[in-house]
Design a protein that fits this description.
Elements (H helix, E strand, L loop, with lengths): L3 E4 L4 E4 L14 H8 L11 E2 L1 H4 L5 H5 L2 E11 L5 E9 L6 H20 L3 E4 L12 E4 L6 E5 L6 H13 L3 E6 L11 E4 L5 H6 L11 E6 L20 E6 L11 E2 L10 H10 L2 E7 L7 E7 H10 L52 E4 L13 H5 L23 E7 L6 E5 L5 E2 L1 H7 L3
Parallel strand pairs: 8-9, 9-10
Antiparallel strand pairs: 1-2, 1-3, 4-5, 6-7, 7-8, 11-12, 11-13, 12-16, 14-15, 17-18, 18-19
Amino acid sequence: MANGVWHSELKCVLELDKPDLGLSNSAISVTDLVEELLQPVATRRRDLLICAEKALDRKCKAEMSGVKSPHMYVRRHRGPDGVLRLRAAHLPTAHEMTQEESDRHKAMKEFLDRTCQSAGLKTTVEKATKSRAARPDVTIYGHGGVNLGCEAQLYNASPSTVLRRAKAQSEAGLVSNWITHDDTFHLVDRAQWMLIRDVTWREINNAADLPLIGGFRVLADWLCTAAAVRPCPTGKSKTGCGKRHLFWETPRASDGIVSGYTGDRGDRLGVTVGRTIIGAATGSVMPIFLPSRKDHRTGSFMWVPVDDHATWSDYQDGVTPDEPEPTPADHGLHFSGNDANSTCQFGDQTWTPSAPLQRRGIDSVELGITIETNALPTIATQRTPQDRARPQQSPSNLVPQPRIADWSDPARFLPEPQPCWHCGKPASLLDDDAKPSHKVCAEEHAIG
C-alpha cells in the first residue's frame, strides 16, 4: 500500500497523509475529493487513479508481475495503532474470459433459454431492463412465480460487482440468480445462487437438465421423541425433548426418509437447475434469506419449496438484508503530514496487520427453530362400520359399554413405562386421551 497516488484528471500526485492531500493552492473541495476517491471502482473510471511510478514513466512493479495492474484504488486502512488512514493499493488485472469460459457461458445461456421456453415461459437473452441499469444473461418472466435475472458466472466476480448487479436487478423487479460451478466464489450468499458440477460446454449442450448440488434446501419437520430417527438438537437423544423441530437441510440429507419426521422432497436426483428455475417462475419454489447477523446484512440465500417456505414463515418471518448506512468519507481519518512516496512498493514487505476490531456480535445462520408443542397428540377413537350403523339412543337408555379400540396401533406405545392414570402401576400404552394407561383399565373406565 502507498501513501501517494496519481490522479489522472488533476495530473498530480495526491498525498494521502496530508489533510489537504497536497492541494494547498487548489480551490478543490478536499471533502468531495475524498468521497470521490472512496467510491467503488464500478462507479468511476478504472484508470482514474494510477501508480505514481507508472505516471512518471518509470517501471511499475505491480504491472510487471502480471497479476496486478498499474491502476489503483483508495481505501481506509486501520494500522497496528488502530488509527484509520487513507492508503492506495493496486487493482487486479481485469479478467479476460478464456475461450473455454466463453463457450460454457454461451452454452449455459442457451440451456436456460431452451429449458424455460420448453416449459412455456417467456425469456430474453442479454437484454437490458427498462431502466438500463441491469442486463442479465437470461431474463425469465414468471408465470405465477417470480421474474428471474439469471447470471452464468464461470469466474470469480468481486463482491461489489455481485451486490451492485443484484441490487440493479432487484430495482427492476427481478430476483437475481447466479449460477456457478465453484462454491468459493464471492457470489455465494451475496445473492440467490445455484451450484452445479464443473461441466464442459458440450455436456451443457447435450444435457436435458443439470443436477443442482448447492443453493437449494428442504425443511425437515419432526416431532422429537425417543422413536424419532433424527437426534434431538438439545441433546436429549434417548428420550427426546417432546417438542417440534424445523431445520433447513440439503435434499441429500433427506434421502431415505423413514418414520420420525415428515417430508417427501428428499430425492436429490430430482433437484435440478431446470426444474428449480421453472418452479421459481411458476410459483412452486421460492427464494428465502436467513440472516446471520443481528443487523441482518449477511446470511444465507436459498431456494426452497413453497410449502416449506409457508411452514417456516408461520413461525419465523423472513428478513430482507438491510442496506448499510452511509459513513462520512472523512470519519475518523488520521493525517500524519508525511510526504508521499512516489516509488512503487508492490511486493515490498510493508504490510502490517490491522488492529483487532471490537466484536460485532456475529451470529451463526439460524437454520433451525424449535416449537413448543405437546409431544403426545390426542388419538382419535377408531369406529367400526357396526358402530357407525348403530342407532342413536336417548340419554335415559344409555348403558356403560366397553370401548373397542385398536391397541396394536404403534402410536399408542410409550418409549418408557409411565404410571397408569387409573391404577398407578407402570403402563406402556396410551389411551384415547393420550394418557398412560393399561388396556384393561382404559376399557373398564371408558363408556361407549
